[in-house]
Specification:
The protein is mostly helical and about 35 residues long. It has two helices and no strands.
Length: about 35
């Protein structure tokens, strides 16, 4: 049970980090949708 929770937690953190990096990349690229 603990291993399953740790695995899912890591996946969530990884997914969250990926989304943050993508948003930062869009912001740096000055995409109108992001900056508006």
């Amino acid at each position: 049970m603990a291993e399953a929770v740790a695995t899912s937690g890591g996946a969530i953190v990884f997914a969250g980090g990926t989304v943050i990096v993508a948003l930062l990349a869009l912001a740096v690229a000055q995409i109108p949708f992001v900056t508006s």
